[in-house]
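Hey team,

Sharing the Nicotinate-nucleotide--dimethylbenzimidazole phosphoribosyltransferase run so nobody has to redo it. Sequence (352 residues) first:
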Amino acid sequence: MSLTEIIGKIKPIDQEILDATQEHLNSLTKPLGSLGVLEDIGKQVAAIYGVFKPELTKKKVVIMAGDHGVAEEDVSCFPQEVTYQMVRNFINGGAGINVLARHAGAEIVCVDIGVKVDMHDLPDLVNKKVAYGTQNMTKGPAMTRSEAEQAIMVGVEIVKDLVEKEGITLVAPGDMGIANTTSSSAIIAALSGLSVDKVVGRGSGIDNERLKIKIKAIEKALTVNKPDKQDGLDILAKVGGLEIAGMTGVILGAAAYRIPVIIDGFNSTAAALIAATIAPLSRQYMIGSHLSAEPGHKYMLAYLELQPMLTMNLRLGEATGSALVMSMVDAAIKILREMATFEEAGVASGNS
Ligand SMILES: Cc1cc2ncn([C@H]3O[C@H](COP(=O)(O)O)[C@@H](O)[C@H]3O)c2cc1C
Ligand SMILES: O=C(O)c1cccnc1
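Structure output:
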């Protein structure tokens, strides 16, 4: 399937189910709207599935791992080897996301979409390598347009298989790629026109001196590549990353195959920005999770009109914030299925 076909497959969520679910929520034993965002999520999820009282979710975290050529500009405080070392950690079950996914009752799949080295000794790692890392975006495009498209399709195909073969009903894309906050900052700067110093942050924890280097690198990448803000694929190819492209594919795949997708922190929201630029309807399938400590994240969420449910100073990525809100999606569904109406419970309803 091509990217154009996938975009064409994305339809609006089911308005009739949305309205019927709203009516059902209004009939439950509570003041109107008093379960707030939980009601919004319940409605959205029902309308995504096109099912009045949906079943509980089968959840999957898809971690995309890729390296960044721009790492050679000294923009991160960790060496690039950490990308593949963390991949090993994901497979062995020891990373933050492994713990939080287990806590949420979700499974994990880890995909090598662009790590600089091969890891043939990890049979559980899904090998979908598009390239051995991106090029240094301060010197030219990070990827070709065709590589970016190929990496998006990796994410799409993975979600398609998970939906069709494993019956998953909820997905969260996660990231691993040293220096990827440099790319994500460039993406929001390119799209919003905000100055780089507003949207940049310390990523994995750089000091003031490196922060200046990082700002310069992003400014240079934008000047050298001149990404077209109307063209999501152009921005992605020029200043994005392979794992960001893979996450964009997971989001577009979720929208095409009609399951909700939880958007995590700075890097997965950068992927969501690209997805929404390429296919605006995909926005209807996104659920916000948390507000990252990375300062540019609030601009991304505002751009997408996504509401973060948690503010916990998380700044890890890997879909850790998404894993934390999975139980809220389950809770929203349980409200739809299990809560009594005024009539059933013999409770007098109010009048406004
Ligand atoms: C051990 C470790 C585990 C991580 N898991 C996610 N990230 C996150 O931090 C990195 C981005 O920060 P920067 O742009 O400053 O390099 C990415 O790998 C991202 O996935 C990690 C980073 C580290 C060091
Ligand atoms: O918010 C995130 O996802 C994030 C922030 C810093 C570093 N890596 C990821």
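The longest helix spans residues 145-166.

Ping me if you want the raw files.
A.
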